[in-house]
Amino acid sequence: MYTPTKATPPDVEIIHRNPAQKETQADNLRACPDCARRISKHATACPSCGAPLAAQVIEATAKRWKAGQVYGWFAVVFGLTVWFFGFSVDNPSVNGFGTLAVIAGFITVFVARIAAWWENG
């Protein structure tokens, strides 16, 4: 009659953590200001209570691109004003300057909006 023999278990290696590594893990934790639970320092919100932990960025558009849009719209309004004024005095050179200002303003607004989008992703 056949009787199976007990297989010897494979050698199991027990890995003990380095005490320095344990301290490093403890250093990466902090207490939540609302519920006092230990959470990661990299967390943006507490997983337990949901309290925000990091400053939240609402809009990160650079001021220079916003200023570019304002300058562009100013040029559009200025150009339209000059353009209409040119028709009232019947001066073609004034009409051309107004048209040029309107076109330059729209290009400035377009470039500033694309640049703001590109910068913020």
Give me some keywords for this one:
121 residues; mainly alpha; two-stranded antiparallel ribbon
Question: TL;DR?
Answer:
With about 120 residues, the chain is mostly helical.
Helix fraction by DSSP (H/I, runs of at least 4): 40-55%
How would a textbook summarize the main sheet? 2 strands, antiparallel
Q: Got a strand count? A: 2
What structural category do the secondary elements indicate? Answer: mainly alpha
Work out the strand percent: under 5%
Estimate the mean pLDDT confidence: 76
Radius of gyration, rounded?
34 Å
Strand line-up across the major sheet: 1-2
Total domains: 2
Per the principal axes of the C-alpha atoms, what is the gross shape? rod-shaped
Beginning-to-end CA distance, first to last residue:
74 Å
Secondary-structure element order, N to C: HEEHH
Q: What is the number of helices?
A: 3
* Low-confidence regions: none
